[in-house]
Design brief:
By secondary structure, the protein is α+β, with helices and mostly antiparallel strands. It has helices at 31-44, 56-64, 106-111, 150-155, 159-165, 174-180, 188-193, 227-241; strands spanning 4-9, 13-21, 46-49, 89-92, 128-137, 145-149, 169-172, 197-200, 202-204, 211-213, 219-222, 247-250, 257-261, 265-269, 279-286. The strands form 4 sheets. It has a 7-stranded mixed beta sheet with strand order 1-2-3-13-5-15-4, with helices on one face. It has a 3-stranded antiparallel beta sheet with strand order 12-6-14.
């Protein structure tokens, strides 16, 4: 069976989020399948693969066929407390013994930042390209993931705003995004690790040439702007970019794998019963170069 990718919502959102069929991610892909996935990502920004019963090693092997991986350094768990290796992001509410984290656990409270709109690893000097999230166990209700199309959001800006945002540089940090929620329990080492980094506010896709907004809850300032004005403007842009017409909401099924292009999307997790298990494993491809090196 050949690989086929169809829009999930061909009427209201034919340009965003595609469903993939005819491919088994547990085996080594052909060059044609790899090319089809990249082409699908360029077109849709988000791809959904159902019924992919992946082991950790298979997820890593599949991901490496698409490009180089970054290490999972964005969480707050100490190395001795990690449940997974450094190439897999542990997007779960479990400790290293596979027990649900208590409600007040520092790791859980930090992880609540995933419920804010963001782009993965925008707080790193070299941010993420693709993220690939595998659903191993999901709660009976809630815990969906929403994705916003930042290309369509940019296209919908008026010409004056497009000119205004074109050359702006923002400061991104997890210290800022967690502070939005009132989480300030950081060590000096963590504050140094997540010191603000510079990212463009507008990016051009290297293959399609399309421009998109590059926003995240991690963005807490604009170079050359007073902080209150910058944050008010970034909030306005985020509200614009996350209108329902730009958003696809994924309702997880067991063994779904969803991948998205962080250069052209934002996403957020939705609430669920914190006493239920939500076990997700994420691999992340690095963008390889800073957004600053990709002039719009």
């Amino acid at each position: 069976m050949s690989t086929d990718i169809k829009p999930i919502d061909p009427v209201a959102r034919s340009f965003f989020a595609g469903e993939v069929s005819g491919i088994d991610l547990t085996r080594t892909l052909t060059d044609a399948e790899v090319a089809a996935i990249h082409a699908g990502m360029d077109r849709f920004g988000v791809l959904v693969f159902h019924d992919q019963h992946l082991s950790d090693d298979q997820q890593l092997a599949f991901s490496r066929q698409l490009g180089p991986l970054e290490t999972a350094t964005g969480d707050i768990a100490a190395p001795q407390d990690r449940r997974l290796g450094m190439e897999l992001g542990d997007i779960s509410n479990l400790d290293k013994n596979n027990e649900v984290l208590p409600r007040e656990d520092r790791r859980r409270l930090f992880g609540l930042g995933n419920q804010l709109w963001h782009s993965d690893s925008s707080f790193k000097p070299v941010p993420a390209k693709y993220s690939l999230l595998s659903a191993r166990q999901i709660p009976p209700a809630g815990g969906n993931t929403e994705f916003a199309d930042m290309r369509a959001a940019y296209d919908a800006l008026d010409d004056k705003t497009k000119r205004e945002v074109h050359d702006l540089i923002c400061a991104h940090s997890q210290i800022f995004s967690r502070g939005i929620l009132g989480f300030t329990d950081f060590t000096d080492a963590e504050r140094a690790k997540w010191a603000p980094v510079r990212q463009r506010l507008v990016r051009r896709h290297p293959t399609t040439g399309r421009l998109s907004l590059y926003l995240a809850s991690h963005a807490g300032g604009i170079e050359g702007w007073p902080v209150p004005e910058a944050r008010a403007f970034l909030r306005d842009l985020s509200e614009h970019a996350t209108q329902r017409k730009f958003v696809y909401a994924h309702v997880w099924q067991p063994h779904d794998l969803v991948m998205w292009d962080n250069r052209v999307t934002m996403h957020r997790a939705r609430r669920y019963d914190h006493t239920e298990v939500r076990d997700m494993r994420r691999t992340t491809l690095t963008n390889e170069v800073s957004s600053l090196q990709q002039a719009p």
